[in-house]
Amino acid sequence: MSRRPQAVPALTAILCAGFGAVLAWQHPLARGWALLAFVAVFAFVAWRPRHWLWLVPAALPLLDFAPWTGGLVIEEFDLLVLAVAAALHARAALASGQVQGPRAPPTVRRWTAFEWSALAFAVFSVASLVRGVAAAGGASLAGAWFQGYEDPLNAWRVSKSVLWAALLWQPLRREITLDRDSAVRRLVAGVLGGLLVVVLAAIAERAAYTGLWQFSGPYRTTALFWEMHVGGGAIDAYLGLAVPFVAWTLWSQKSPGLWAVAAMLALLTVYTCLTTFSRGVYVAVVVPLVALGVVMFLRRAVPGRRGGWAAGLAIASALVAIDTLLILAFEWGGATAAGLVVLGLALPAVVWARRVRPPSWRTLASLALALALLLEVFAVVGLGTFLRERMAATDNDFQGRRQHWSDGIGLMDEPSDWLAGTGAGQLPRGYATRVPGLEFPGEVAWQGTSAGSGVVRLLGPRTRDDIDGLMLLNQRVAIHPGHRHRVDLAIRTTTPAQLYLRVCESHLLYVRHCQAGGLLVLPGVSGWQQLSTVVSGQALSAGQPWWPRGAVFSIAVVNAGGAVEIGHVALAAPDGAQLLANGDFSNGLAHWLPTAMGYYVPWHIDNLYLDVLVERGLPALLAFVCCAAIVLVRLARAGPRGPAFAPFLAASLGGVLCAGLVNSVMDVPRVALLMLLVIIAGAELGAPVNGPAAP
């Protein structure tokens, strides 16, 4: 027996390993640790290749340290995917190179409609990447980790999820072919592990910054999705993908103990969904789950299509009637009346379960879980006003979205834009420069100097006074007791600029208590000026040891047309401790994160399908829709004899497709990769093992 590695997987492994090692060595904060972790993941996956299927989705929510690294284009999650892909393709190259006896003649397999559609989507995504890089001024790797939304590598940022999915497709196919049930278990375990990280982060965030039971203030949970520093719906799409995996665990578990663990995760997940206060999340979670419930009921219904559909319609009608009754009770008598209605419906069900049908532990536990979930919903609705305010604003918000979508489509001027898109990553620039009134609230750009340090250019809005001060340069700092912080700056400007500085208790987008101040900067005769000021206000609190609270130092230009260059900044705590890292910007924007506050319109088109259309072109959109439709058809055709997981995977895909009605999705690479993996897994699980080729 000899080993002759095949060229394609071997070359793929070499490229992934080399690219990943280079990115790890360029890590802004810990290049040695990043490279060591990259090698460790490569070695682990090469040793135990089947574990990648849980490792990638489990690590997805954790591996982005943008608030500390300042990186927008490159994430630590990219290093994980490259290490995994390098190991898997290296093993594939060695395995395919094992020759024992005469070679069997190669078999020719016809490509399916799904594979042709996926290829078309990939090809037009590559064309969009090329157009996006060209439109942004050509490829430039300078300061790759710190390039922003108007720089060339933003095209790479919104395109890389397609490449990652392509690299993982064949390994995923192999896993499903070798052992379908084992592959499903690993995928489910990974998604549930990642979801647990998200819900625990969400609970810690709310406990520290707003309170677990405070539902009236305008605070929307973001958890660990730092991509939301300029708005968007990263957590919305993720929850739409992940919630059906919890439903699968509840449905499939036979052990009361493990079922109880899954039920607790379900309660925490619903709490997280509710506290996003996102109507998109509610649709993305509820609609697929209701459809899933009807499908599962029909599978267990009395034989005969007509009876099954009648029962399904009866259940749907009952759900609508109960929901209407609860809403009317709440509007009439508040949470108390709604709670009485819940009890009035639950008690007869319990009596029926005990007298008519012998209760099993699963029946009673499911009833208790349903009651707990209803109480969660009414706690959020009844104990606060923010959700009702959000619902009341739905009509106005929808009108705004329609105009926003129309403006986005209006960016497609040329026939080539309809064929290959305006270019990957070009929506923010197009909105801000070509749509009247839709400008950025400010800009942040870093530039290195010959002396080895750096300069940050900070701008306010070009013309609009109503969005000034909404683009901030942030750094996370430790909280020290006291009412005043001192700020020292080396700064220069050619036009008068008004600075706003503050130190606030904050997680990402929302602030709790602040110490703030202002500083007027006038053009200096000698260029650089050394200025100092004080920010003051209520003393900041570090919170409880089990719910620690952090603070963020922010700088913003608050006058339209204002611009400054900052060469150095220092922040002294009340006790004199220096709080800032990389204050001279010698390490680029490491430790700094540009963040928008309350105004996010130019960064997103807020629709998955229009995002694909505008940036990648009409053929790419048709190919993407065909891929999703084929997967849903395959999973539906699988029927009772197919994988038991098929309806739940279809619900997961349906969840992200629903979320995509009001979220771009593709501009969040981590979540976009999970969506593409769900699509590929659905295509492979739904494909017949024997018989005619599936579509």
Descriptive notes:
The protein has 695 residues and is an alpha+beta fold. Helix content is 55%, strand content 13%. A hairpin with a 4-residue loop joins strand 7 (497-506) and strand 8. The protein is globular, with a radius of gyration of 27 Å. Mean pLDDT is 87; it is low at 302-321 and 690-694.
Query: How many beta-strand runs?
Result: 14
Number of helices: 21
Radius of gyration: 27 Å
**Residues in β-strands, percent:** 5-15%
| Low-confidence parts | 302-321, 690-694
Going across the major beta sheet, what is the strand order?
3-4-13-6-9-8-7-12-5-14
Largest sheet: 10 strands, antiparallel
Class by SSE composition = alpha+beta
Shape: globular
Distance between the first and last residues' Cα = 39 Å
Which percent bin holds the helix content? 40-55%
Would you tell me the overall average pLDDT?
Answer: 87
